[in-house]
């Protein structure tokens, strides 16, 4: 479906059945055995192995009763014919408001598996919403943060500034802390050619010869490379999540496959901060700590095709003995600290 802002056409009644059947056929093409009609076609196209498709989104920034009625018909058929596919419903074009408030209860009523949330908002919004999912209902659908980006508006433009990236890193500590409810996320958009721009900001810019990774790209990369396997509790002295107090944001995970603890910290203040993290349950043996940092003295700094490495991750190591980790957090920085178990 097109975004409802782009197209307000709606299939109703019998014509909708064709679109529902398209979804059933798509799942068979992606996952069906080669003895099935569409699975055989997939194999003939050169991919005999199933794609192991798991999710199907119905709608893209739709809203209103008509969308809910159509989605209900999709669900009835898909639950019967494709019971292993998780269905993603929508919550409208924004993170709040009348459309959002109407759709979330409807998604719960329909019992979709995930709800797609979109937010293209200011850096201030991202900083202030680091606790957005702390109080979400754990008994309802899970969340797919399907489109998001921090829009740092400067003189009518929306540059991929370090401020935008830092606010996204801060917000993502809340996504990671609430991984039990936020199951999927996706920055948007991914690519843009400098001479054919439909939307900005974008994660990766390119021309015919060069590629430039934005500060936001490196934030996404660091969360991807250091995602861990299980969420750990990381609280301040008042037993609260670290989500904006003193301009600090943090989350922690354990990677049981690589046998380490990973701590992500954002210092949104321009001044350095000394923090002490108590690593309860960790042995006091000497350890080599890896610290990866993304930082800039100027929040307005951007990468360009001519200067693509104005901002990029920097790594260093230091030793730790005991279970008290003292960190000197540089101003305006995002840091990823890896501690061996």
The CATH class label of the largest domain is: Alpha Beta
CATH-wise, what's the superfamily of the largest domain? Glycosidases
Q: Under CATH, the topology of the largest domain is which?
A: TIM Barrel
Q: Tell me the CATH architecture of the largest domain.
A: Alpha-Beta Barrel
Structural domain count? 2
Helix content: 25-40%
Helix-strand category:
alpha/beta
Most strands sheet: 6 strands, antiparallel
Distance between the termini: 47 Å
Low-confidence stretches: none
- Order of strands across the main sheet: 9-10-11-16-13-14
SSE order, one letter for each helix or strand: HHEHEHEHEHEEEEHEEEEEEEE
* Gross morphology: globular
Which labels suit this protein?
EC 3.2.1.55, TIM Barrel, Immunoglobulin-like, glycoprotein, alpha/beta, 7 helices, 26% helix, 2 domains, 6-stranded antiparallel β-sheet, 341 residues, hydrolase
Can you walk me through this structure?
- With 341 residues, the chain is α/β, with parallel strands linked by helices.
- The protein is 26% helix and 28% strand.
- It has 2 domains: 214 residues, TIM Barrel, CATH 3.20.20.80; 109 residues, Sandwich (Immunoglobulin-like), CATH 2.60.40.
- Helix 4 links the parallel strand 2 and strand 3.
- Helix 3 packs parallel to helix 4.
- The radius of gyration is 22 Å and the shape is globular.
- It starts with 14 loop residues before the first helix and ends with a strand.
- The model has no long low-confidence stretch (mean pLDDT 94).
- Belongs to the glycosyl hydrolase 51 family.
- GO terms for molecular function: alpha-L-arabinofuranosidase activity.
- One of its GO terms (biological process) is L-arabinose metabolic process.
- It catalyses: Hydrolysis of terminal non-reducing alpha-L-arabinofuranoside residues in alpha-L-arabinosides.
């Amino acid at each position: 479906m097109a975004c409802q802002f782009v197209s307000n056409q709606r299939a109703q009644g019998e014509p909708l059945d064709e679109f529902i059947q398209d979804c059933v056929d798509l799942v068979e093409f992606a996952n069906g055995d080669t003895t099935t009609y569409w699975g055989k076609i997939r194999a003939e196209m050169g991919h005999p192995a199933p794609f192991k498709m798991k999710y199907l989104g119905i709608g893209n920034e739709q809203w209103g009763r008509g969308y809910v009625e159509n989605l209900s018909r999709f669900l009835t058929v898909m639950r019967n014919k494709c019971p292993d596919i998780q269905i993603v419903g929508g919550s409208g074009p924004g993170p709040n408001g009348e459309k959002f408030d109407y759709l979330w209860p409807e998604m719960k009523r329909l019992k979709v598996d995930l709800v797609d949330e979109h937010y293209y908002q200011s850096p201030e919004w991202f900083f202030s919403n680091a606790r957005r999912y702390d109080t979400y209902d754990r008994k309802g659908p899970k969340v797919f943060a399907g489109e998001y980006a921090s829009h740092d508006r400067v003189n009518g433009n929306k540059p991929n500034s370090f401020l935008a990236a830092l606010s996204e890193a801060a917000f993502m500590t809340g996504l990671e802390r609430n991984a039990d409810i936020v199951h999927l996320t996706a920055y948007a958009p991914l690519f843009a050619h400098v001479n054919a721009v439909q939307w900005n900001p974008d994660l990766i810019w390119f021309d015919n010869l060069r590629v430039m990774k934005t500060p936001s790209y490196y934030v996404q990369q660091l969360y991807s490379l250091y995602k861990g396997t299980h969420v750990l509790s990381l609280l301040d002295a008042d037993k609260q999540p670290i989500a904006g107090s003193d301009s600090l944001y943090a989350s922690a995970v354990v990677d049981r496959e690589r046998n380490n603890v990973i701590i992500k910290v954002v210092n949104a203040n321009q001044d350095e901060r000394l923090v002490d993290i108590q690593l309860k349950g960790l042995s006091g043996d000497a350890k080599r700590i890896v610290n990866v940092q993304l930082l800039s003295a100027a929040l307005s700094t951007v990468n360009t095709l001519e200067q693509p490495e104005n901002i990029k991750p920097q790594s260093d190591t230091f030793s730790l003995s005991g279970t008290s980790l003292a960190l000197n957090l540089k101003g305006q920085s995002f840091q990823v600290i890896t501690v061996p178990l």
